[in-house]
What does this fold into?
Amino acid sequence: MDRSEIHNLRRLMAYEKARSAPPKAFPDLPQIPAGRYTDSRFFELEQAHIWKKTWLLAGHLDELPEAGSFRLWELTGQPILLVRTREGGVNAFYNTCRHRGAPLVTEESGRRPLLTCKYHGWSYSHEGDLIAVPGEEDYSDLDKSCLSLIKVRCELFGKFVFVNFDERGPSLLEWLGPVADDWREFQFDKCRLSARHVFDLNCNWKVAMEANMEVYHIRNIHPTSVGLMIDDRQNVNTLFANGHARMICPSRDTGPGPLATRSGRPHMAEIETVGEIGRTCTQSYNLFPNWVSPLSQYSLPPLLFWPNGIDKCRFETWTVAPDWGDGKGPDLWTVNDGERLCDVLLEDTEFGVWIQKSMNSGGFRGVPLSYQEARIYHWNQEADRMIGVENIPAELRVEQVIGENWVYPNDPRLDELTPAIAAE
Ligand code: FES
Ligand SMILES: [Fe+2]
It folds into this structure.
């Protein structure tokens, strides 16, 4: 992050602290329709459009250490196989044999010189080419070149493996846009995967995710943890294209920071290139559709939210950290290597099942969001654009009220600033 960006962020922190109302240019936010959490029509639209058209975090290169290493990834409900190639890249295929659909692998991970179907023994290369068919002479006209494994788009950001089911659309870097520029100082290409766990939650996936998309809840939910560590009055939200967003909220002290403290490892290794903001603030991103991650000099710990039904979801917690040497690396989010969520995440997820019960009752009519919760509204606008507004029943749409003038690098707050509240 360059000096002028840091300068603007410091000025915006002072602005946020001093304001007594939302910025003049900020629109009134209509309520989010309740049915977006409960109506099966909206759930089906999400399935058809959001999960099939966006870049999704599927794995980490450390899980695929050698040529032929594979990992099964089924968190979207589709059986996908990630395979490390001889050139060091990663291919993603449906784990679906082109003969009669049997799986190529049934283990979660492993290593194979060839991908050989266990049913009748068809064999595929790591590039997905069908190279051997037992009893091929019994086929009268089998064109192996037309029976390669079906590939899914797969690209890397550093050692993070992303998958996209849409054959068209932007590259991963285009999709990330300015977020990728922000992330360069965090060394996604060098940090190691140290923990990855999945938990089942009994609420709609957006209910769980939205608990991590605003600081409004901090004082009530986290009064003795995060609430003591960050100054939520100075929080600065920034909205990016494609539904992504960032929050930057200064820490109350210059100690090891909330994440290092939370991990119980005060002497964690550091990513030396992380700049001033990452070291003195909680710098957190939500990446459309389902990634939330605070980044710091100590770790890159994404949280991911995957629907597995309209009223339940899978909550994935990752910790990626700079080289910690030998032994077990840090795990920011769980206790006893995945035995349970850490206290902060228990606080964040505590009301999910209660909210879901309300949503399924007659008492839930819609969601009025404040300026501080703008990232949630921004996400919903992007969701509708991705689905196609005309495809959504009128009563389930959100109005597109946050305009381009609020999407980075535009920021009407900077126009409101006066020298008196500038930080420098
Ligand atoms: S289903 Fe794979 S070889 Fe028959
Ligand atoms: Fe929280």
